[in-house]
Write a structure and sequence with these properties.
The chain is of the alpha/beta class. It has helices at about 10-15, 55-60, 85-95, 115-125, 140-145, 170-175, 190-195, 195-205, 225-230, 280-290, 300-305, 330-340, 365-375, 390-400, 410-420, 440-450; strands spanning about 1-10, 20, 25-30, 40-45, 65-70, 80, 105-110, 130, 155-160, 180-185, 215-220, 235-240, 245-255, 260-265, 265-270, 310-315, 320-325, 350-355, 380-385, 405, 425-430. It has a nine-stranded mixed sheet with strand order 8-9-7-10-11-12-13-14-15, sandwiched between helices. Strand 16 and strand 17 (about 320-325) form a beta hairpin. It starts with a strand and ends with a helix.
Length: about 450
């Protein structure tokens, strides 16, 4: 990772709170992976459940690292010895953050974090030099790495913050020292780590940590828990949604299925968004943009929506395939099912679903509830695989879905879909990341393309 900063070995030692053994150096980049390490990098020997980063330290030096950050000293080699390498990386990122007096926006929430981050970054990027979290690298390692991407040219930093246990977001905020924060929404996600939705809310509220009264908290007016958290903040709040300074007056869909938003105070936006819940993402982006003097919204927001890895639509052999396989929890599943129900079609609406992970003891009930949403929204047919698939199918059949069944494998799903789906049908593919539901799309596309050849 190469960026436009430069630190001496003395400064690094001070930032890490340790001493250094070796020849003095200057570095302007770090590495946490010997496979991508470049000459001149400072190597942090991170360890995981199945590997010890110290074992790669000498290899890093052989490949040209100026020094290594390790928990075990290497005799005669340039190294910083610390108790915890991950903590040292965070301390180094915190030091780096303190060198810049630029706006830092922290984004968390049960749904929509990455989409909001990308929309805001593209919007602000039309005027400012923006650094943002890459992909969804939003944890205790990804966040420090994103901070270290800042350099003297950076004018705005946007950080996505995820969490699967209490205290994680508070630690990220301690490192990042955000000047602005937002919780997109609060729902049932990562319940294994939190227990219940109230504990999820408490964890998300940690994003207020370190936000001074001179900062700004963006409030989703349509999530009562977000509103309650905003009421506790002593500084500026900017409210968006069905009320507030950024007001959604109307949300409709045109004949192509694209969303048309009438927003006060900016007017009409037409965006490639396909579920009403996605309007909140656009409203947040508008709120941030207005606070930072953006005047042109539609072009950059259309660009961001088109580039997203969420809710991609393509046509294969006359069938519309909705790829929302990136991840899933009960709230994002509800939004996707609503979007499937809203898609214009003369054919069937078919849901192809994988299980939702990390839901704890409520998992079966939440899968059953998801199944009932299929019937509520008039979905014609469902294929389901993975954990608690039987519960999803039971909910679907009870709520009136004509055909719903458990299917064991990706390939079997693809074969069935290739057999019974018809041109004009709309198919939604969604599941938690571990369900790899994109494999069904790939296999189905191959089946359909071969049939047409």
């Amino acid at each position: 990772m190469s960026v436009g900063w430069n630190y001496t070995s003395e400064v690094v030692a001070s930032a890490l709170g340790t001493t250094y053994t070796g020849e003095p150096f200057q570095c302007s980049s770090i590495s946490t992976d010997t496979r991508t390490l470049e000459v001149g990098d400072l190597f942090f020997a991170l360890s995981g459940e199945n590997f010890d980063g110290n074992a790669f330290a000498e290899q890093a030096l052989e490949k040209g690292a100026v020094a290594v950050v390790v928990t075990q000293a290497i005799v005669g080699k340039p190294c910083f010895v610390v108790r915890d390498v991950q903590g040292a990386l965070q301390d180094f990122a915190a030091h780096h953050r303190r060198q810049y007096s630029i706006p830092v926006l922290a984004i968390t929430g049960s749904c929509g974090k990455t989409s909001c981050k990308d929309m805001i970054a593209t919007l602000l990027g039309s005027v400012y030099s923006v650094v943002k979290t890459q992909g969804n690298l939003n944890n205790e390692i990804g966040c420090p790495l994103s901070i270290l991407n800042m350099d003297a040219d950076t004018e705005f930093l946007i950080l996505e913050m995820g969490a699967n246990h209490p205290g994680e977001i508070a630690r990220l905020c301690e490192i990042a020292q955000p000047t602005e924060s937002v919780i997109t929404m609060i729902g049932a996600a990562h319940l294994e780590g939190f227990g219940n939705i109230e504990d999820v809310a408490k964890a998300k509220a940690e994003i207020m940590t370190g936000l001074s009264p001179e900062g700004c908290f963006y409030v989703n007016a349509d999530d009562p828990r977000c509103v309650a958290i905003g009421e506790q903040y002593a500084g500026e709040t900017l409210v968006f949604g069905s009320q507030g300074a950024v007001l959604l007056k109307q949300c409709t869909f045109d004949t192509d299925g694209e969303m048309v938003l009438d927003i006060d105070p900016i007017g009409t936006l037409r965006l490639p968004l396909y579920a009403k819940a996605h309007a909140q993402n656009a409203l947040l982006a508008v709120a941030v943009g207005l606070r930072h003097s953006i005047t042109e919204f539609e072009a950059p927001l259309r660009e961001a929506c088109s580039a997203t890895s969420r809710f991609k639509i393509k046509t294969v052999a006359g069938r519309e395939l909705i790829d929302d396989t990136y991840n899933a929890n009960p709230d994002s599943m509800r939004v996707a099912i609503e979007a499937l129900a809203q898609r214009p079609t003369a054919g069937q609406r078919i849901a192809v679903l994988g299980g939702m992970l990390e839901l704890g003891e409520d998992a079966e009930a939440l899968h059953f509830k998801t199944g009932t949403l299929l019937g509520k929204h008039g979905i014609n047919r469902a294929l389901v695989r993975g954990l608690h698939a039987e519960a999803t199918v039971a909910g679907a059949l009870e709520s009136g879905v004509a055909q719903a069944e458990v299917v064991e494998s990706h390939e079997e799903m693809a074969q069935q879909l290739a057999t019974f789906s018809k041109p004009g049908d709309v198919l939604l593919f969604k599941g938690s990341r571990g369900m790899t539901m994109e494999k069904v799309i790939h296999a189905l596309s191959e089946h359909l393309n071969r049939a047409e050849a």
